[in-house]
Amino acid sequence: MEQQFVELIQEPSGEFENFHRMSLTDFNYLLSKVLPLISKQDTHLREAIPAKIRLAVTLRFLATGDSFKSLHYLFKISSQLISKIVVDVCKALNDVLKDEIKMPVNEQQWLEVENGFKNNFPHAVGVIDGKHIIIQCPDNSGSEYFNYKKTFSIVLLALVDCNYKLMYANIGSQGRISDGGVFKNSSLWQKISSETLNLPKPRSLSSADKANIPYVFLADGAFALHNNIMKPYPGTHNIGSPKRIFNTRLSRSRVVVENVFGILANRFRIFKKPIDINIETVPIIIMTCLLLHNFLRKSNNSSHIYMPPGIVDTYDENGVLLQPGTWRQNVDKNCALRNIAQIPRRSTLSATQIRDHFAEYLFRNN
């Protein structure tokens, strides 16, 4: 087994990094963290599979989407044992990396997030979106996981900042539940509605503006408009009109979450097709991908490997698309991450007035 690992790290230039989405330095760092959780003792009947091989198998499974059978031929480990190793290692990674995804806890931290959005959309403190994660039909599931597109899925709800990092993730609601329904059942919504997120207090958008406007999350039409959640105006609007400018600015800011989902699908090829593993383990494995995304995004050793130049969309200072991200070339219609239906929802008067105020402000300062 030791020789097998030596062969892995001596693969042709860049192959180890390509198949594990990280540098050997970060691999060894993660190994040191999960070692106590995934190490097994030798028995008189057989030699235990080393922790480094267990981690390598798991990362290769996530990065390539290879079947357990294909990994069996590569690592000379039975498919049944690989399926157990993957779950065990993912649980360990989720434990040691759990702090990689966390929301701001005070006003100053929220304002640091807003700093990345304010030139385009002031008072925005994150972008919310959801995706269906397509799975193979679970046994005896009835219609629980059957969604509006007649596929089986669970739902991923995410909140991201302008640096392509996740601040919150909720995984596992059955596909039949709408995006907005998933949101209303989430801990994020509970904190928004109970005003316990410690968001900055409402204040004017500029020194010339008199009204105090709340800090908001940006969303699409699948979510209900709320004092702290802005979504586009429905329908089409005249070029240069306040509603058109509002929708353009919001869409320009929201593209960051589209890129996050695109990066995930591109770098963790387990998403390249409907996921065919035990439904109970799907949320565990998805969370591992999300945590690794944040870990690798900020790593000085692996960020360039995980997110090579050009992978995300490039825009000019006016928000005009210069170059689509390369992830768009490698994510096809069979990808396990799918959009969620947008359902018209009645908005409260105060939320509508807040959106109108944003629209007028952005129109005056366009």
From TrEMBL:
Keywords assigned by UniProt, alphabetized: Hydrolase, Metal-binding, Nuclease, Nucleus
DDE Tnp4 domain spans which residues?
128-294
Q: Which cofactor does it need?
A: a divalent metal cation
* Assigned GO CC terms: nucleus
GO terms, molecular function = hydrolase activity; metal ion binding; nuclease activity
Q: Which locations, inside or outside the cell, does it occupy?
A: Nucleus
Membership in a protein family: Belongs to the HARBI1 family.
Name-wise, this protein is DDE Tnp4 domain-containing protein
Q: Which organism is it from?
A: Parnassius mnemosyne
